[in-house]
Here is the input.
Amino acid sequence: MSGTYLGMPAFPKAARDAVRNGTLRGNLRHATHTIRDKRARAVAELEDWEELRAAGKAIKDRTLRHLDHHLVRLERAVTAAGGTVHWAADADEANRIVTALVKATGESEVVKVKSMATQEIGLNEALEAAGVRAYETDLAELIVQLGDDRPSHILVPAIHRNRGEIRDVFARRMGRWGRAAPEGLTDDPTDLAEAARLHLREKFLRAKVGVSGANFMVAETGTLVVVESEGNGRMCLTLPETLISVVGIEKVVPTWRDLEVFLQLLPRSSTAERMNPYTSMWTGTADGDGPRDFHLVLLDNGRTDTLADEVGRQALRCIRCSACLNVCPVYERAGGHAYGSVYPGPIGAILSPQLRGTGSEVDASLPYASSLCGACYEVCPVAIDIPEVLVHLRERVVQGGEVTRQGVRVTLRPARGHAAERAAMRAARWTLDHPGALRAGQRLASRTRRLHPERLPGPGRAWSDTRALPKVPAESFRDWWQRTRGGAR
Amino acid sequence: MSDGRDRVLARVRRALADVPRGERPRDVPVERDYLRTHGARTAGETVDLLAGNLADYRAVVHRTTEDGVGELLARLLSRRGAASVLVPPGLPPHWTAAVDATRVHDRAASTPWELDAVDSVVTGCAVAVAETGTIVLDGGPDQGRRRITLVPDHHVCVVRVPDQVVGSVPEALERLDPRRPLTWISGPSATSDIELDRVEGVHGPRTLEVVLLAAGEGGRAADGG
Here is the structure.
């Protein structure tokens, strides 16, 4: 994949380009509106949705507050069931571990189940550099990989492509990666799915190594859970001889019973189904059924830094359903690429700056990629208060302060770009603390009001281009009150 | 390897400095005041709900009894034009006694390519969930290895009703053994990846037929297929 997030422009610039793209806007609008209404219907079927949501939040909070305990327990259970557990503090370490495991099998290709964690660490690129070809097998990931594109949605990474564009990518590119698309391929989704089936089947049947993520890991039993629709997950999890799962440490849940909450919350929130077509659960290795070797790579990569922030840590409750993307008015217009991360949309706006820090231009701008309308919080199945975290992160960007980066406490300096705003606020504070100066200023403004321009000068001009400036009244409220006592005189 | 482990665990512990020392994991409250099942139903109504939800996700549902199951399965396979059918080792022999198609047994040495050449597979199941229209396989003797219900394009799954049917997801998890490899199946394989619209049929079996097998006699007339 040539697509990269390095050096991405800040959100406002990337979004400005995206909103000018009419096709992209149309594709996103169509897709997000389709799923929005369906989700609402699927959720309305369960009269105890709010109770399930509260339980989902509580289970995740219980997990996070004692994460070390649950991880150690998980490790013990997976090991007892025949698996091997590895720990990776960052992306490089995870990539090194996985690459070494693949190399040890002697294979030069792997089949992959869609996984946010492996995208986050850039595993495909790391494998490629080591001479290992990674084949994405989820339909949308395949579209992205064949099109040399970047994912733009958590659940449906090719949401920015319509059926016609997908047809063109398949017809042009499939042949380079393996079996070519059938002659005369149409843009009918059924035909496109069939083309993907034919293209990937030979890869599944010959694969010796599978790479996956996981939606949940059960500490009590050592069970991993992958939720999917197409069957590509089942192929990658059961046909290869070696299975390597790279999973963020926050994906652990304490008990088997806890799954009863998430298996109800997740499908209805993400694809708006009562249940997704396939869910695979496995505990270590099973005799004669599925991979002989199972490796679990537990990934930190900024998660413990996020955990150290008492307000921001709630982002780690996320179960990657993408309901917040689908309702977000900003995402709908700007699209996923503008967020400059594998985690777009409202959850990305709070997750990326915490996982990666606010050092880059795009990460520092992400907390502002929202109108704070709160729709994301409403639909979140684990009740992440995204607006609260956005405001918290804005504060940090502007004011600086203590944060944890790669496990170390550091003090961030206030953002320089906000110097003008801070100066204005300081001036305002002084003025409001000195009533005499405020009164004099207001009277001066009233007396000169005929001379005021229609437009603001300097940097304010853009604002007043599309808005009328409010008229300054002939008399200030304070003077009017002193004169009339609120109309009593 | 242990280096990464120590580093990650130390970071987790430092990050949780605000958690009181004496607090234990179970001290963090989780209210489980959500419902065990949604709505009250008789056993028969639960089976009807399962049938409705299976059909809603494009599984083809049939009903029969012990007396009719052999004939029904033979008919489903011949209608499909299946020349070969995979049979797990513990499938009751009378289920497939009348089947014309060549019976193929799954062997540990069977390659995925061999499985790909088989037309259909017939299995039992571990449990079925009415509210979600889901069947769950746990690799029991009448279900076989996970791969045999994955590679062939046509899966016929027999559910004993009402014994194997539960109302809800919480009830299903209670019945299942996490140490076994589990596959939850809700309809044929599908995707929402093109314009977020659901299309049936990608890598898993594109046709899923579910036979609801009632104990007793006289079910032949009730066959919905």
Summary: Chain A touches chain B through 103 residues (CB under 8 Å). Chain A has a mean pLDDT of 92.
